[in-house]
Amino acid sequence: MDLKALTEAFGPSGSENEVRKLLKEAASKLCDDITIDRCGNLVCRRQGSDHSKPSVTFAAHMDEIGFIVTGHTEDGLLRFRPIGGVDPRVVVSKWVLIGPEKIKGIIGAMAIHLQTKADRERVLGYDNLYIDIGAADSKEAEKLCPLGTYAVFDTEYTEFGDGFIAARGLDDRVGCKNLLEILKTSDYEGDLCCVFVTQEEVGLRGSTGAAFHLQPDIAIILEGTAANDLGDTPLRYQVCVPGEGVAISFMDHASIADKDLFNQMKDVAVARGIPHQIKRAITGGNDAGSFQTSGKGARTCVLSVPCRYIHSGNNVAKLSDIKAQADLALAFLNSL
Amino acid sequence: MLRDTLQTLLSCYGPSGSEHAVADKVRELLSGHVDSMKTDALGNLIVEKFSADENAKTIMIAAHMDHIGLVVTNIEKEGFLRVSAIGGIGPKLVSGRKLVFADGTPGVCAIEPNKKDPSAQPGLNDVFIDIGAESREEAEKLVSIGDVAVYAPDFTQLGRHKVASPAMDDRCACALLVELLMYADNQKHNIVGVFTTQEEVGLRGATVAAFTVQPDIGLALDVTGWGDTPETDLPAVKLGAGPAVKIMDRSMIATPSVREKLFEAADMAGVAVQREVLAYGGTDGGAIQLSRGGVPTGTLSIPCRYVHSANEVIDMRDMEGALKVLLQFVDLA
């Protein structure tokens, strides 16, 4: 499955159907036991032959940040709110795709000619932003995009520069791609599961259900994470650097990595010459938190691809880091 | 004795996520005194001491092994370490303190002045640890990103009854739980003592331990705040006036039946107890109470001054009283 198709698929939290369909199709060629659970998670299991080996689950989330329609104005504009954390400063003048029909809309703001100095210094919040779908009036807007309709940034997957890509939703379609890679390549002899989860961006909701019924010994989360490496950012505010390899986390706001797994990841990466870095800040939280604390708990560790401009319409990552994430996940499995 | 056990446990390194040194010490202390000991995926040490009574209930009693710390996030080219918090620890608390890493590497903590805005409140981003290294390369030989520093152990007797130390939250409760498991004898109920992990970052260890143990009754042992210094009045709890029975905090409203049993046990043991309403904070009790279909749960607290500082102060009379209440509680509940 190429990243272009995966990142251009529509999948804001709670509306992951299109992404799931793509992934299911691809996974069905690699795995015999595929189910969709009550939370909408796509669960791909492979029974192991060696029960002395730990059961391992790899998880990546299908959902991405986006928007949802919350109202219609008299003149046919859509009121909306973000799904997940989207900085209102990055949305103005961006194209969005709305609903299953992918109606085109643009997020507008007052023309610079009409702004006062105070207007220009103020950050517009979601109360002051609208999506323009070119509708004549509220009736037409409501018919095309009823309340609760989802939207995402309209972004084309682009390769540029020295091995970089720009796309929407690299957080966490990179992880989804690499889960397929694991299913394709791994010959792990213990129980293996790759689970594509829903609703991570709104509070680890899909994985909370998945973790409870899967109950693996070890859960490894494949993620995209914020890089913050540019400009004159002092070292102490940097998180990780695109091009320096897969980022291994010791801790974030949702979990502390299992110490032994964290050390094992570092050792395997060094032994196999896989480019890697340690994530150098405690930011965000991800599905490791729910796997660690669901049911009897699991040992967890997070491997992330550094992404610039994460949670915007154009995330930037380096292809070599995406490969390193898959390489380390597979090398780790081999080391068990 | 209780004081020796406390002092032994206070000397162990054990920030949230790296509690194994504490667990090892507890295993050593309890060896031969209990029926089983096991460790789960999160590092919780689950210790069972069964009752002979066939109608015995299972009481899970939790004390957390972890304490707060500073995790290294970056190493500056001059050899200084940048940090983030593990648990509720701030710049005022750590500045000027002596710290120690897992392997014993010492460091001291300092705050840099904010040149742009000298009146600004410092944040943890303004804090660094000085381990005496003169370059990044030298520092990296001693410490890696992700390593955690804690307050250096420092046990001090204050006056006749009080003692000060880092990590009193919650090693004083670990000491109580160890002593309870040692001295409970032919008690009425099964005791499952759980030395939990990662309480300070969100009751994570207790969440999974409660799921595994499936107790009939839950009890958390933890420190609480103080209201007995000159400008402080809440919570209305004093050091030396006995352990406190929690009515509520931010994580839990204590189950009335358990709360009343604690009062009853205290009464029978002849120990004065205080009533505690805490407007902030939470304990493992909150996680146990909400496990599976719900567990009747209470918390017994040790009043503690200057919680999360390098000098957490408790009164040994409250500890002795708490142990008597606990020994009675497991026979009564």
Task: Name the features.
heterodimer, A: 336 residues, alpha+beta, Aminopeptidase, Elongation Factor Tu (Ef-tu), domain 3, 2 domains, eight-stranded mixed sheet, 9 helices, 27% helix, B: 333 residues, six-stranded antiparallel β-barrel, 17 strands, 26% strand
- Which structural class do the helices and strands of chain A define? alpha+beta
N-C termini distance of chain A: 27 Å
Biggest sheet character of chain A: 8 strands, mixed
CATH class of the largest domain in chain B: Alpha Beta
What is the share of helical residues of chain A?
25-40%
Given helix and strand content, the structural type of chain B is alpha+beta
How many domains make up the coordinates of chain B? Answer: 2
Q: Which term fits the overall shape of chain B?
A: globular
Give the beta-strand count of chain B. 17
Gyration radius from CA atoms of chain B, angstroms: 20 Å
Within CATH, the superfamily of the largest domain in chain B carries the name Zn peptidases
Query: How many separate domains make up the residues of chain A?
Result: 2
Q: Write down the oligomeric state.
A: heterodimer
- The name of the CATH architecture of the largest domain in chain A is 3-Layer(aba) Sandwich
SSE order of chain B, as H and E? HHEEEEEHEEEHEEEHEHEEHEHEEH
Number of helices of chain A: 9
Strand portion of chain B: 25-35%
* CATH topology grouping of the largest domain in chain A: Aminopeptidase
